[in-house]
Design brief:
There is one protein chain. The chain is mainly α and 52 residues long. It has helices at 2-6, 15-23, 38-45. It has one domain (2-49). The radius of gyration is 12 Å and the shape is globular.
């Protein structure tokens, strides 16, 4: 898989992991994910339900 080769972690990340990775970067305060439809929106909104 191409995504595995280009991942800084050597494996494909989930969409939620990608959001967290981007937000963990110094100076990043917002991320604007691409949303192609309702399914993408529902998946991205799951980020708000995560517990830390």
């Amino acid at each position: 898989m191409e995504q595995t080769k280009t991942s800084p972690f050597g494996r494909k990340l989930t969409k939620l992991q990608c959001l967290q990775y981007a937000l963990d970067k110094t100076g990043v305060i917002t991320v604007l994910p691409g949303i192609r439809g309702k399914k993408d929106l529902e998946e991205i909104l799951k980020y708000l339900d995560r517990t830390y």
